[in-house]
Amino acid sequence: MRASDMHDEIRELNLAYLMLAQQLLREDRAAAIFRLGIGEDVAQVLEGLSSAQVLRMASSNMLLCQFRFNDTMLVDLLSSHGRERGAAHLHAAILAAGRPVESLA
Q1: What is the pTM of this model?
Q2: Whole-number Å distance between alpha carbons of 42 and 21
Q3: Exposed, middle or buried: residue 77 (CB in 10 Å: 0-12, 13-18, 19+)?
Q4: In whole numbers, what is the pLDDT of the chain averaged over residues?
Q5: Domains contained in the chain, CATH given
Q6: For residue 100, what is the DSSP state?
Q7: Residue-wise pLDDT tens digits, 18-49
Q8: 102 pairs with which residues across the strands?
Q9: What's the distance, CA 63 to chain centroid?
Q10: Do the beta carbons of residue 99 and residue 67 sit within 8 Å?
Q11: Distance between CA 31 and CA 38 in Å, rounded?
Q12: Residue 8: how many other CB atoms lie within 10 Å
């Protein structure tokens, strides 16, 4: 994959993430903060972004979203395909809720 193709893919992902984040925040702020794994300060900034600002941020050459997990147990729970999938996803949500949120600090 060429570098320009990679940058285009990153821009599209960033734009989709920022638009989804703003929509989630408008619909249910508390749930959005939990689902996005962000703090109040980041939520406030995302909500206040203009369309032009969203496009500028999306054009960054780095991913703006990140995975909220960095341990094998959480990955295993989220990728569970067995009969206990619902319980595994609930357990994963509980583990993720105990993680610190991102802030602007």
Answers
A1: 0.70
A2: 11
A3: buried
A4: 83
A5: 1-66 (1.10.4000.10), 67-99 (no CATH)
A6: P
A7: 999 999 999 999 999 988 988 999 999 999 99
A8: 38
A9: 10
A10: no
A11: 11
A12: 12
